[in-house]
């Protein structure tokens, strides 16, 4: 299985095996540590996210996939006692550090080019959207679900909003199914339709990155296939990070895959390489179903 040599960044056997994308990075975690109170859940995680690609995070239960995803748009900020250190760069600007700690980090790392992003929470959420495991439509009409975030962040006329709602529903491959009942409740849709509604709501504000945490785990195979097709089309306009337990799903739709274990990134590389020629024994055991 290991017959083809692939570039490996470090010769340290304990170091993660990272094959960095050649293209432009929209988002990047560097040496990320995460703490739930005193309990550390991520250890020095690096994660490069290439623009207009799908990046999958896989690994056994409890390895830190969801924690890493929640750290990328700082949703953990809502919960007291949760804290991240390291760097998260959005378009090269750091989301984590304030100006004081930036100068300390620059001194330590000599990484003088980095600037703080200085985004407030709502601006950040508009640029990095999130879709959760269970469909979470708001108790309001299909139209209002999609318009919700847009109304929060932008001023739009009724005609502009109509266009945004239609375009978002079309991109989420839901328009044909709901165009005649936009004013009925989003809660009346099937689970698969509700999840695509959440995708439409997420993309309506035109984020750069869309984070999805096991978005298909509550869906049947037909709805899952539709969602996967939708995500592959959305890649043209957005950069997507998806947490999944479903290895076939990661192999089918993603361009890059990161395998995590016990809070560490073990191996990150183009998806086909990771599945066909894993370099780490742990990755190999996981993708061949020997554990997890
Ligand atoms: N709210 C929390 N408070 C304390 N510890 C937590 C909390 N959420 C997660 N953890 C711990 O952090 C670690 C990583 O959990 P996380 O949910 O990120 O893993 P995961 O890989 O997404 O797992 P799964 O695939 O089962 O969803 C685990 O040890 C978990 O117990």
Automatic annotation (TrEMBL):
Single GO MF annotation: phosphate transmembrane transporter activity
Alphabetized UniProt keyword annotations: ATP-binding, Cell inner membrane, Cell membrane, Membrane, Nucleotide-binding, Phosphate transport, Translocase, Transport
CDD domains linked: ABC_PstB_phosphate_transporter
Superkingdom as given in the UniProt entry: Bacteria
GO biological process, alphabetically ordered: phosphate ion transmembrane transport
Pfam families: ABC_tran
Name of the molecule in the record: ATP-binding cassette domain-containing protein
Segments forming domain ABC transporter: 27-287
High-level lineage: Bacteria, Pseudomonadati, Pseudomonadota, Alphaproteobacteria, Sphingomonadales
One cellular-component annotation, GO: membrane
């Amino acid at each position: 299985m290991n017959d083809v040599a692939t570039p490996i960044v470090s010769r340290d056997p304990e170091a993660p095996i990272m094959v960095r994308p050649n293209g432009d990075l929209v988002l990047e975690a560097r040496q990320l540590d995460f703490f739930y109170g005193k309990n550390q859940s991520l250890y020095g995680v690096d994660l490069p996210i290439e623009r207009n690609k799908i990046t999958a995070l896989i690994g056994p239960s409890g390895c830190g996939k969801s924690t890493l995803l929640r750290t990328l748009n700082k949703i953990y900020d809502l919960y007291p006692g949760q804290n991240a250190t390291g760097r998260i760069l959005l378009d090269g600007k750091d989301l984590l550090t304030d100006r004081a700690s930036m100068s300390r980090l620059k001194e330590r790392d000599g990484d003088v080019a980095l600037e703080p992003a200085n985004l407030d929470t709502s601006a950040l959420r508009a640029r990095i959207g999130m879709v959760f495991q269970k469909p979470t439509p708001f108790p309001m009409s299909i139209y209002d679900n999609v318009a919700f975030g847009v109304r929060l962040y932008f001023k739009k006329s009724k005609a502009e909003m109509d266009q945004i709602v239609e375009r978002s529903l079309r991109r989420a491959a839901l328009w044909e199914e709901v165009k005649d009942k936009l004013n009925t409740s989003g809660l009346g849709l099937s689970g698969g339709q509700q999840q695509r509604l959440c995708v439409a709501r997420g993309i309506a504000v035109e984020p750069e990155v869309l984070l999805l945490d096991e978005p298909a785990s509550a869906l049947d195979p037909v709805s899952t296939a539709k969602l996967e097709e939708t995500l592959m089309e959305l890649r043209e306009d957005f950069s997507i990070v998806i947490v999944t337990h479903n290895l076939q799903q990661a192999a089918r739709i993603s361009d890059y895959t990161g395998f995590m274990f016990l809070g560490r990134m073990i191996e990150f590389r183009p998806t086909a390489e990771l599945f066909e020629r894993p370099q780490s024994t742990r990755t190999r055991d996981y993708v061949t179903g020997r554990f997890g």
